[in-house]
TrEMBL record:
Organism expressing this protein natively: Hirschia baltica (strain ATCC 49814 / DSM 5838 / IFAM 1418)
Ranges that cross the membrane: none
One Pfam family recorded for the sequence: HxlR
InterPro entries xref list: ArsR-like_HTH, HTH_HxlR, WH-like_DNA-bd_sf, WH_DNA-bd_sf
Gene3D superfamilies: Winged helix-like DNA-binding domain superfamily/Winged helix DNA-binding domain (1.10.10.10)
Residue ranges of every copy of the HTH hxlR-type domain listed in the record: 18-116
Swiss-Prot/TrEMBL GO biological process terms: regulation of DNA-templated transcription
One GO molecular-function entry: DNA binding
Entry keywords, A to Z: DNA-binding, Transcription, Transcription regulation
Protein name: Transcriptional regulator, HxlR family
Length: 122
């Protein structure tokens, strides 16, 4: 496989011509990056995720989890208990993002979070 980036222009201007846009369509969105980071090394219940992800509503968290599940990146396990217990974990496809997520984490820390206000302005 070649390392050359191929972009095929599409008349409808969707992500179909760019694999990067296609990937970002799936993993982009409020809280999705954090969800993926959190689930890299652990399985969590919905309420645990919600407590960990401050600033995201229950409705949005539910929506993002469903989208990640529909994309095949996370697995939702429902246990037949009273009260019901639901756990989320990454699928093999989700785990295949590990290197990318770790690099994005590193880049964000070095180039966004750890910068002084003056560095951010330049």
């Amino acid at each position: 496989m070649s390392d050359k980036i191929v972009y095929e222009k599409q008349a409808d201007y969707t992500h179909r011509g760019c694999p990067v846009e296609a990937a970002l369509d799936i993993i982009g969105g409020k809280g999705k990056g954090s969800i993926l980071c959190i689930l890299l090394d652990q399985t969590m219940r919905f309420n645990e995720l919600q407590r960990t992800l401050t600033g995201i509503s229950q409705r949005i968290l539910t929506k993002q989890l469903r989208e990640l599940e529909d994309a095949g990146l996370i697995h939702r396990e429902v246990y037949a208990e009273v009260p019901p217990r639901v756990e989320y974990s990454l699928t093999d496809k989700g785990q295949s993002l590990r290197t990318i997520i770790m690099e994005l984490h590193k880049w964000g820390r070095e180039n966004v979070l750890d910068q002084t206000p003056q560095e951010k302005a330049s």
